[in-house]
Amino acid sequence: MTKLDQIRAAESKLLLQTYERNPILFVRGEGVHLIDEGGAKYLDLLSGIGVNALGYGHPAIERAIVNQSRALIHTSNLFYHEGQAELAMRLTERTGMDRVFFSNTGTEAWEGALKLARAHAGLLRSEGKQIGTKFLALEQSFHGRTYGSMSTTYKAKYREPFAPGVPGVEFVKFNYVADLRAKFSNEVCAILVEAIQGEGGIRPLTQEFFAEARKLADSTGALLIVDEIQAGMGRTGKWCAYQHFGIKPDVTTLAKPIAGGIPLGAILCTEEAARAIHAGMHGTTFGGGPLACAVAIAVIDAIENEGLLKNTTEVGDYFQAQLRGMAKKHDCIKDVRGKGLMLAAELDSADLAKLTVAEMLKRHILINCTSDTVLRFLPPFILERKHVDEAIKALDEIFTEKAAALSAANQTAGGNNRG
């Protein structure tokens, strides 16, 4: 029995069966590649679902982990350490926000943002304003798997097994301004959006919809909350995807790539929103610990020092152009979309999307599929054009082989019909 076989057998007996894992045992990583137990290299265009922004074995992360772990790993939030204020300064300067709360994960950050919205509405009511407690979220949204996050996530498969969810959530048709206007009222305490939906299929908001959401929120004092957990921290070529729109939210949430693989999330907000939170209203045991903060600072500095926002834009544009070229050649590609290195190719069938992910894996290239028909690409920010070319070549082979197989099947069927 191989080591992988032993692990699979143990996990099947001991773990909650929440994941359908691929039968590969990765033991280390180098740059944009993961290496399995047999030494085979895999080009990683998924980066741990958007987490490993600097790839694998980046010296800045390794140095930060070694130095901070020797000095101090945890203190609790009852005491000060050097990392939180320094990291908060970097984040607020780059996002235009005023204040930060650190959590462990993205879904915890989103939970905190929801609490902040309800508390802010309560503060406004105490000041004489009429504002309710309702949330408007978007169809196809995904905000995480804890209870409030799940309740504001659209797809039934994430919510229904655990129903009922948190009350007071209504979903708006994606990018449908008239539906947003119809469902908004002074009963709404917050409008919840992703500037670019991730799990929902890499779907950007339209400028018109985003601007209307900002306008409506301003009209009553409701908060505009933008989930940047997947799109933020440089993935789209700017620190936050909302910066492409020139629209500033009241609250935003960050996580996945923020600390290069060390768990960390953050709520960022304006001074106005921050008025609603006082000591004791919210907290965390591990969030914003010295180790995570030190690594996050190193990640931000590396992104800037190595020009990775520019690289994300340039290589992302090249990647998207190659995918669009493929769409002209292969009818199965119905749409190509995204920004920077947050890209998608939507196919014409869920079966083909699933087969493509499997065929790419056979060619040692990691991607995944979301929304059934969408191939999702979330590579490390250090990706180069040669890696894009490798992926495009593999996709071209797969779609060409699929088209040839389909043509042969049709010819056989035609011959049988003539017979």
TrEMBL record:
Highest taxon above the source species: Bacteria
Query: Would you tell me the Gene Ontology cellular component terms?
Result: cytoplasm
**What reaction(s) does this enzyme catalyze?**
N(2)-acetyl-L-ornithine + 2-oxoglutarate = N-acetyl-L-glutamate 5-semialdehyde + L-glutamate
Q: Which InterPro entries match?
A: AcOrn/SuccOrn_fam (IPR004636), Aminotrans_3 (IPR005814), Aminotrans_3_PPA_site (IPR049704), Class-III_PLP-dep_AT (IPR050103), PyrdxlP-dep_Trfase (IPR015424), PyrdxlP-dep_Trfase_major (IPR015421), PyrdxlP-dep_Trfase_small (IPR015422)
Provide the assembly information: Homodimer.
Q: Name one Pfam family in it.
A: Aminotran_3
* Predominant location: cytoplasm
Tell me the pathway: Amino-acid biosynthesis; L-arginine biosynthesis; N(2)-acetyl-L-ornithine from L-glutamate: step 4/4
Specify the protein name. Acetylornithine aminotransferase
Q: What is its EC number?
A: 2.6.1.11
Family annotation (PROSITE patterns)? AA_TRANSFER_CLASS_3 (PS00600)
| Cofactor(s) named in the record | pyridoxal 5'-phosphate
| Gene Ontology terms for molecular function | identical protein binding; N2-acetyl-L-ornithine:2-oxoglutarate 5-aminotransferase activity; pyridoxal phosphate binding
Q: Which residues bind pyridoxal 5'-phosphate?
A: 106-107, 142, 227-230, 285
User: Which residue positions does N6-(pyridoxal phosphate)lysine occur at?
Assistant: 256
Translocase is among the record's keywords: no
